[in-house]
Amino acid sequence: MARAISTRRKATFTLVAWAIGIAIFFPILWTFLTSFKTEAEAIASPPSFLGFAWTTENYSVVMERSNYSRHFWNSVVISVGSTVIGLLIAIPAAWSMAFVPGRRTKDVLLWMLSTKMLPPVGVLIPIYLIFRDTGLLDTRTGLVIVLTLINLPIIVWMLYTYFKEIPGEILEAARMDGASLYNEIIYVLTPMAVPGIASTLLLNVILAWNEAFWTLNLTAAKAAPLTAFIASYSSPEGLFYAKLSAASTMAIAPIIVLGWFSQKQLVRGLTFGAVK
Amino acid sequence: MTSRVRALFGACAIAALSTPAIAENIVIATVNNGDMIRMQKLTDDFTAKNPDITVEWVTLEENVLRQRVTTDVATKGGQYDVMTIGTYEVPIWGKQGWLVSLNDLPAEWDADDILPAIRGGLTVDGELYAAPFYGESSMVMYRTDLMETAGMKMPEAPTWDDIKKAAEAMTDKDNEVYGICLRGKAGWGENMAFLTAMANSYGARWFDENWVPQFDSEAWKTALDDYLELMNNYGPPGASNNGFNENLALFQTGKCGMWIDATVAASFVTNPTDSQVADSVGFALAPDNGLGKRGNWLWAWSLAIPAGTEKEDAAKKFIAWATSKEYLALVAENEGWANVPPGTRTSLYENPEYAKVPFAKMTLDSINSADPTNPTVDPVPYTGVQFVAIPEFQGLATATGQQFSAALAGNISAEEALANAQDLATREMTKAGYIK
């Protein structure tokens, strides 16, 4: 009896999980399908799910009109660059907060997070003026700096949480064996925190890849990443849903592939320390 | 120095001297509308005529573009050499000294050929601050087949009563055919563009001569009541979410008997590739109430040069090319007359080839019947037909639009929406110093 209930509960949970998964994934699937329709089929009512004349014309138009590779490369440089620099700053910061906390460590952490509570548009003009005066407008360097600073609180918080799970005695033992601070962080702490660091890295690459406020407002022609590429296909007067879907698919495909291949690492990192 | 090294230096010097001068690169910010996409495709014609200039495009969604270029022009960021802006921005930015005057464009550009209503909207104190790329008004687009079935005929210049009767006659909800489709989505450029123009024809106005808001007037009440009655009885479900694109999709798929919206939509709904009703679309002027003002607007997507650009000459050359008579002929040659950017030049409407386009005359008549300097029945202290050309209007009209959209969705009554709009406008205008 108990086994029967357990099986039924399992089946229910599985069904619910699938339903939630499909609901979350459906917009992406619909975007993907729409990208292969004609503009007329994209607005057809009732819409057809699979029974339409598939065409790759939208992709040809998008490739012809836009410089996809430039936008793509800008996205890679900006997201990877800002994440790597962020990690280089955040690992020592999180180490000190986790293993040598001061009286105000919790306050500092909260203060760092509070910077995320300010609407970005509130500081747009000051940052725009600084960028104008320093020649950073429409440069990848400028965006790497801004996205590093924006994501730094999240990176520090995530790493701090992972580091707290590592027993301090192991680091103490390393110190007693004569390890320097550098060796302690690089050879003892980092290998133990690899899942956490990897998931932080992946999450921040995704956040930086999808960031649309600063990447749209601080770029023009040269440093515009894939967010600007998608925005260029949204039209207030004209139905270009199929082309917009093709552009969106091309923009999100790399990050979906990355997420797909690294999902085990990502889940392991995100649930690190959740169950003891 | 050996002879070999000397020869190397000499070769380098010759190479440096013989390198062609680096072309000047101009950056153009624009929106993703059909006419702009065509302009991008035809850029080779410009660069062939101006080999010393290269062109880089930044295409953005309208609201993103507006935010982006406003930030750049206000801070003199210098990211763009040519900007696509509308008739709302031009008078405000021109007065601020943020735009370069285009009065000195070459004589062959022929400024006198620009339609007077459009030119007036882009001129401040005698200075032309933007060149119109395409102009639009609004008009009635209706299904001739449904009108015929209903035994009705749409007048060329209908009244709001005519519209109500036609909407009722064409509505067939069982078959998902709705008599009328109008903008309901909240936004200063969405439902408020339509409602402001509609209210003008009812004798309503945003402000009196002392900038006191007028949403508590009888004229606004009648206009809003009629709008809600039309949409609730004969409009499609969920109309409070519908903007231009949603209504275009409904009309093209045969679900609207009538649609009152931008004249630029005429080329979409008559295009057989995208529209299922392409061969049965008729056009009429926007309705009136016999008060001397029609419910149509006036807008022009225009090209302007931000003050402070270092490439003013190249930018002027580009604007002179993109808004010239020759450009219109180039589009006609490549894409056909129906795809020529409409609503900017008198000569286009005198062209017998263009006169064959089914919506050409009605577009011109609609544009000519709008007067941005005298938009309302009673006098007002502002210019602009479907907008008020003051910086506060964007935020205020979007907030007001949310009230009217909520009334359409049935969340609040028309009276509540108007009272809230009056409070919002009074508060904003007092804060901004218009009301002492």
Low-confidence stretches of chain B: 15-20
Taken in chain order, the helices and strands of chain B follow as: HEHHEHEHHEEEHHHHHEHEEHHHHHHH
CATH architecture annotation of the domain at 67-232 in chain A:
Orthogonal Bundle
Number of DSSP E strands of chain B:
9
- Determine the fraction of residues in helical runs of chain A and give it as a percent range: over 70%
Mean pLDDT of chain B: 92
CATH architecture of the largest domain in chain B: 3-Layer(aba) Sandwich
From the N-terminal CA to the C-terminal CA of chain B, the straight-line distance is: 82 Å
> What is the fold named in CATH at topology level of the largest domain in chain B?
D-Maltodextrin-Binding Protein, domain 2
Radius of gyration of chain A, in Å, reads: 23 Å
Low-confidence stretches of chain A: none
Keywords:
heterodimer, A: 276 residues, mainly alpha, MetI-like fold, 14 helices, B: 436 residues, D-Maltodextrin-Binding Protein, domain 2, seven-stranded mixed β-sheet
How would you characterize the overall build of this protein?
The complex is a heterodimer of chains A (276) and B (436). By secondary structure, chain A is mainly α. Chain A has a domain at 67-232: MetI-like (MetI-like fold, Orthogonal Bundle), CATH 1.10.3720. Chain A has helices spanning 2-34, 39-42, 57-65, 68-99, 105-114, 124-134, 140-164, 168-176, 181-192, 194-210, 213-217, 226-231, 241-261, 263-270. The radius of gyration of chain A is 23 Å and the shape is globular. Chain B is an alpha+beta fold and 436 residues long. Chain B folds into two domains: 21-129 and 298-360, 3-Layer(aba) Sandwich (D-Maltodextrin-Binding Protein, domain 2), CATH 3.40.190; 138-297 and 383-431, D-Maltodextrin-Binding Protein, domain 2 (3-Layer(aba) Sandwich), CATH 3.40.190. Chain B has helices at residues 3-18, 34-41, 43-49, 62-74, 89-96, 116-121, 144-149, 160-170, 191-201, 218-234, 244-252, 265-269, 312-322, 325-335, 346-350, 352-355, 360-368, 393-409, 414-431; strands at residues 24-31, 53-60, 82-85, 123-124, 127-128, 131-143, 258-262, 281-285, 298-304. In chain B, the strands form two sheets. In chain B, strands 1, 2, 3, 6, 7, 8 and 9 form a seven-stranded mixed β-sheet that branches. Chain B has a two-stranded antiparallel ribbon with strand order 4-5. Mean pLDDT of chain B is 92; it is low at 15-20. The A-B interface holds A 39-40, 43-45, 65, 124-125, 128-129, 132, 137-138, 216-217, 220-221, 224, 228, 231-240 and B 27, 29, 31-34, 37, 40, 56-64, 67-68, 71, 75-80, 189, 243-245, 248-249, 252-253, 255, 262, 264-265, 268, 273-274, 276.
